[in-house]
Amino acid sequence: MNTVMILNKLSHLRHGPGRVARALPALLLSALALCSLPAQAALNVLACEPEWAALAQELGGKLLTVSSATNALQDPHQIQAKPSLIARARSADLVLCTGAELEVGWLPVLLQQSGNARVQAGQPGNFAAADGVRKLDVPGQLDRAQGDVHAAGNPHIQTDPRNIAVVAQALALRLAQLDPAHATEYAQRQVDFNQRWQQAINRWTVQAAPLRGVAVVSQHKAFVYLYDWLGLKEVAVLEPKPGVEPTASHLQSVLATLKLTPARMVLYSAYQDARPSEWLSKNAGIPAVKLAFTVGGTDGAKDLFGLFDDMLDRMLAAGARR
Ligand SMILES: [Zn+2]
Fold first, then answer.
1. What is the model's pLDDT at position 103?
2. What spacing in Å lies between the alpha carbon of 103 and ligand 1's midpoint?
3. Model's pTM, two decimal places?
4. Residue 135 and residue 148: Cα distance in Å, rounded?
5. Does 217 have pLDDT greater than 80?
6. What separation in Å is there between the alpha carbon of 199 and the centre of ligand 1?
7. pLDDT (tens digit, 9 = 90+) per residue, 58-79?
C-alpha cells in the first residue's frame, strides 16, 4: 500500500469510521509520521479574495485547507493566472469567489486551465458569494463605454458586514453539501460565528453613528455597501470611470465639485496607489484615509472582525460629524 492509498483510507476514516477505521489507525499513524504530512483536511478550498478565505476558516476551522488566490495588496479585478495558482485550482474541492463579475478578467481562464470539473461554474464546488446578496449600482442599461462597469451590480459586497452574514449562511450549507460527514460541525460553527458576528454588527453600528450623513470621496467605487450600511454620502469618485486611473483633468473637476459640495475625507483601498487620494487631500485640505478593504489590508485587519474594527476606527478618527 503506497502513501496515496493510505491517505485515501484516511479520508474515508474522516468520513465516518467503519471496519477499515478500526483496523488501520496504527498503520496510518506510522505512515503519516514517516512522510511527516499533516492530517488531511476534509476539503481543499481556494478563495479568490482574502475575506472569503477568512470566512471559510471561521466556518470550517481544521476541516478545511484554505488558501487565497489574491492577497490584500493585490487588485482583485485583475491578476495573472500563474501556473502555481492553476495548480491550486486543480486540486480544489471548492473555489470560493465574490462573483458578480469581479473576477471576470481572470477566473474563467483559471477554471478552464485547471481542468478540474468539480469547480466549474454551476457545479457544487463553485461558490459565488454575491449570488445571494442584494446588489447595489446595478446599471439600468449596459454600456461598456462607461468603463469597467460591473453588469451584475457593484461586486464589493464585503464592505457591509450584513452581507457577510448572508454569505456565511449559504457557505455553511455548501460546505455541508460537499462534506456531508461533517455537516453538523459546519452548522454549529455557523451558528457560533453568526452569534459573534451579529453582536459585532450591533457594536459597530453604534460606534459608527457619528459617520451618518458624512460626505466622502472614494478613489474607486469600492465602498458603496459600507456607505449604504452606515449612511455615508459619496459626493465624488476619483476614477473617471470604474477601473480607469484618475486623470489630472478629472481630479481638477472633483476639486471643483468639492468647492460646492464639501467632503470630510477621501477613501482608498490598501491595494491601490495612494497618490490620487493624497493629491486630493493636499489640494482640498481633507484627510486621505486608507481602508483595509479586505483581511490583511492593514495591520489591524487581521481577521473579519479586525477588518471592520480597523476600517471604522480610521474613518472615525478622520472625520466623524461633530
Ligand atoms: Zn470594482
1. 97
2. 10
3. 0.86
4. 17
5. yes
6. 29
7. 999 999 999 999 999 999 999 9
